[in-house]
Hints:
The structure holds two protein chains of two kinds.
Chain A: H1 15-28, H2 36-43, E1 62-69, E2 72-79, H3 85-90, H4 98-114, E3 118-124, H5 131-135, H6 138-151, E4 156-165, H7 166-170, E5 177-181, E6 185-187, H8 191-199, H9 205-211, H10 216-222, E7 227-229, H11 240-259, H12 263-275, E8 280-282, H13 296-304, H14 315-318, H15 327-330
Chain B: E1 17-19, E2 26-28, H1 29-34, H2 50-57, E3 64-66, E4 70-72, H3 84-95, E5 101-108, E6 111-118, H4 129-145, E7 149-155, H5 163-183, E8 187-196, H6 197-200, E9 209-212, E10 218-219, H7 223-230, H8 241-246, E11 252-253, H9 259-269, H10 276-282, H11 288-306
Parallel strand pairs in B: 6-7, 7-8, 8-9, 8-10, 9-11
Antiparallel strand pairs in B: 1-2, 3-5, 5-6
Amino acid sequence: MSDMPALVAASPPSEAEIESAWRRVQLARHPQRPRTLDLVPLIFTEFFELRGDRAFGDDPAIVAGPALLDGHPVMVVGHQKGTDTESNILRNFGSPHPEGFRKAQRLMRLADKLGLPIVTFLDTAGAFPGPSAEERGQAEAIASSIKLMTGLQVPVVVVVLGEGGSGGALAIGVGDVVLALENSVYSVISPEGCASILWRSRDEARTAAAAMRMTAHDQVDLGVVDAVVAEPAEGAHTDHPATAAALKQAILSAIRRLSEQGTAELLGNRYARLRGMGAYLETGAGPSRPTEAPSLRRRLGRILHLPGVPQRPRWSDIWPSDGGDDEHERGA
Amino acid sequence: MPIKFPFSRRAAPSDAWTKCPSCDSQVFNRQLERSMRICPSCGHHFRMSVGERIDLLLDPNSFEERDGGLEALDRLGFHDDRPYAHRLEASQVKTGLRDAVVWGIGRIDGQRVAIGIFDFRFMGGSMGAVVGEKLARCFEAALEERIPAIVVSASGGARMQEGTLSLMQLAKTTAPLVRLDAAGVPFIAVLTDPTTGGVLASFASLGDVILAEPKALIGFAGARVASDTVGEQMPEGFQTAEFLLAHGFVDAVVPRPELRATLSRLLRLLPAARAADEQRTEEKPWGPIGALSGFAERLGGAVSETIGIDTDADASGGNGERPSPAAQPAGPREDRP
């Protein structure tokens, strides 16, 4: 379209891009990759897990509680995947139910009340999509978590550990600083889900992973992630303590920086960060107006006051439904 | 101006009829349009375009579109079986819209509102940066003017072609709601068929009041995705408006013919809180003079409304003269003579 200068047709991702993106996805899902509970004891001391949403139950797919970071109390919240079949069943493969998000909300509110900085760890393929989750309001739980986090009066540092999967990740992922491990990924939908919808085949997941630009470095480029934390040479799964040490440094420096800001400044910056997400073009086009008299019949009908001809312009004339534009006149 | 396209608009006579997906009867399109796109034989609510929604919900000639010029950019350089740019263009040609949401300021029975409306035909009503930006501006305008915000949703969720930037629109559209809460400005969500995924997992679930149209598909994960992932069949009536009502996630299921009146009533029952400074200056003594001036205000509002003068500051006053008893509590300053 001539009035869309900045919108050029993209080409499909190259084989090299696909290869590199998929390698990261596999590393992010590596069975030995450090999970939240692997890293928490290495980064913090005295972590005390608190449980339950005080309404329905406890969700082991999210762990949360206070801990000390360099001697200072903070609130830790994170997704928790299992490490083997048994623990994965317990943890529901790291896919939270609504009560998990509500537990997170409860403890983030506690942090807000006490003025504790919050550190969250994202590692989920996504929120659980089954009927039990729908019944208990999965969408509402995610939405209200996001809303709570946008208004927290304490610094929030988010760390993408492995998979940052869609709304289930964002529900505990709204922060002032977002860090990502080098081989983590972050996406709006799993590459398999994206492939099955857009390519109509789950086999195209590798292509979808590249097209969505979901690697940590891509996310920095898009402005979703602020900084990448380097992993040991072969990946975080080869050296948990080194990964934890690097994360600890990054988290500490982020919290120090954020703690210098007053509450108003902190909230203002967070709002501006979220408001600035996404690219769009502000064309000079003015507002639409319903067109006067779109057809001869209607024009004459207005003048002669024929029955069935509306006397005022209608918005449905410019934005009608699919069935064709002037069905109501043609069929008469 | 709407986008103009160089082809005949009267090409296909075959779509003069639409088959009702619910009762299989053939409905004449002209009849559908006259009946608010409700199937005359079974009451199935067909989806509506943005234009039809505006005509349905807002006072004639009251709607002013805002930010109509916003257009999507392809920040990722996304290509599936065709480029994102081509998908956008196809949707623009099909709908005459620039993106999946239109927002603006309008009136419902004289009450000024900031309203955003989705059109499902534009890439499944998916939420990318333009949709997020328009809704955020809609909420910010509601905040600025202290008028209620309304969003009528019809969306498959976040727009995959914009990657995590579309995911971030969940937060971008939700953040202003915290400010509306602090300022005491109401937000009403109207969920229509379908409202799923990231749209439901953000502002649409956060209305102070949430209304839904009958039988609308409303859910977090599409039923197919859910079955794929969980490996079980979803129960009957799962993810309908009625299911959400039964589980406490919507306030009312409202048939389309009653939607406008219901919104109007809620706007009267739940007016924006008066701003702190406004409260001090507007406080009037009880007694005959206060009552009199309240009446004059009401009358003034009504008169200026009928002759089309802007009555922003006192939109609720215009309804005082309506026969409905619900109108009385609308203005706290006038109900205790």
